[in-house]
């Protein structure tokens, strides 16, 4: 797989099966936006919907660990295939997105 396609796949996997909540107090100018004050699920196909208390939502959330583990195995594979400087660059770009998600999660606590 070409490196740019792999990066896009790994990046998308970070956001798939992702649950988020944005309180209106963080974005008061968008107070009437439907996405605010609603728990939203981005499913494994990248579609968003209101999180429901049902089996399909639970399945999506539980699958997140498998998706992230798959990312890790693909990164390990690339670490063995790429020259160190290329892999370090690739990994750093991936980690920028991981840190961004971490920042968003901690901002909403």
General description of the model:
It contains four helices and three strands; from the N terminus they run H-E-E-E-H-H-H. It is mainly alpha-helical and 109 residues long. The protein has a three-stranded antiparallel sheet with strand order 1-2-3, with helices on one face. Helix 1 (3-15) packs parallel to helix 4 (84-107). It is globular.
Quick gist of this model?
The protein has 109 residues and is mainly alpha-helical. The chain is built from 4 helices and 3 strands. Helix 1 (3-15) runs parallel beside helix 4 (84-107).
Write the SSE topology.
Blueprint: H1 3-15, E1 18-21, E2 39-42, E3 48-50, H2 55-62, H3 64-81, H4 84-107
Antiparallel strand pairs: 1-2, 2-3
Task: Please tell me the overall pLDDT.
Answer: 83
Which parts are unreliable, with pLDDT below 50 for 5 consecutive residues or more?
Answer: none
Strand residue percentage: 5-15%
What strand line-up does the widest sheet have? 1-2-3
């Amino acid at each position: 797989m070409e490196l740019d396609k792999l990066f896009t796949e790994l990046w998308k996997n970070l956001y798939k099966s992702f649950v988020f909540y944005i309180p209106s107090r963080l974005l008061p100018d968008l107070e009437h936006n439907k996405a605010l004050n609603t728990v939203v699920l981005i499913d494994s196909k990248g579609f968003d919907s209101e999180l429901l208390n049902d089996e399909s939502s639970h399945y999506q959330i539980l699958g997140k660990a498998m998706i992230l583990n798959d990312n890790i195995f693909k990164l390990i594979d690339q670490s063995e295939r790429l020259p160190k400087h290329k892999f370090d660059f690739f990994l750093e770009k991936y980690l920028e997105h991981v840190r961004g998600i971490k920042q968003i999660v901690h901002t909403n606590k």
